[in-house]
Amino acid sequence: QAQQSCEACHNLFGEYYCNICHLFDRDKKQYHCSECGICRIGPKEDFFHCSKCNLCLNLSLLGKHKCIENVSRQDCPICLEDIHTSRVGAHVLPCGHLLHRTCYEDMLKEGYRCPLCMHSALDMTRYWRELDDEVAQTPMPTEYQNMMVEILCNDCNARSTVQFHLLGMKCTNCESYNTAQDGKCRLTLE
Prior knowledge:
It holds the Pfam family zinc_ribbon_6. The protein is of the alpha+beta class. The chain is built from 2 helices and 11 strands. The chain has helices at 101-110, 125-136; strands spanning 16-18, 23-25, 30-33, 38-41, 47-50, 55-58, 90-92, 98-100, 147-153, 159-163, 179-187. Strands 10-9-11 form a 3-stranded antiparallel sheet, with no helix packed on it. The mean pLDDT is 88.
């Protein structure tokens, strides 16, 4: 029978013992989440279980995260490994998708978008204002000055027609530059 200590000599097998998972470990303030079905690193007081996401999340996200049903049962889109039972903590993106925390940190070295839905993975407002300044200071070559393009915003999903610019095309709805050309270019007569 698995238990925390030896019946004969009473030596502890681990500071933490879960009699459901039969997990022995050093004390890392673990707790068993019956909804997740596994032990989690705590402390328990700092976490809540979101039944829609099917995941324990930090209390700082209570009422502030976008729920996606059973999101923790998906693999990390960066490393393609399981998130739910991983020893690496999960990072919840503003769009609601999950990545391993280490995969999120690596992703930010290469880009700023969720690999699944292309939404910005962090607040880009300051960078968009800097890009506004760069666009204003970078005149377009004559052949592009009257070119209009249809764009799709990856952050708000709005479609709009804007003036083409090599540095980026700004969404008229949310002012993000996280956009993609979504149609043909056309010249306007001015």
